[in-house]
Amino acid sequence: MILKQELVNFLNEALKQDEEAITRVFLNINIPATQAMIDHPTVQVRANKTLRLIGLLNGLIVENNICIRMVIDDTGKRIMRFEIGTIY
Hints:
With 88 residues, the chain is α+β, with helices and mostly antiparallel strands. It has one domain (4-86). It has helices at 4-17, 19-28, 35-38, 53-61; strands at residues 31-32, 50-51, 66-72, 79-86. The longest helix has 14 residues, at 4-17.
């Protein structure tokens, strides 16, 4: 089983190695979600009914409202880091 901290460490290492690619994969890809995905008990679908990779990954590992968050800069265009946090 993948532990949250292991996944965070992996994502942060990937971010260091290729910030542009990781940012594009995690921020720029927003797929319209089906109603079934919106209704899924753990997958996190955005308020605009789109799905990002982070929401799908959190569907796998979320437990007791603890998830992986992306910390994004003030411009909204750069991921600064990934961390463990709570679902808002």
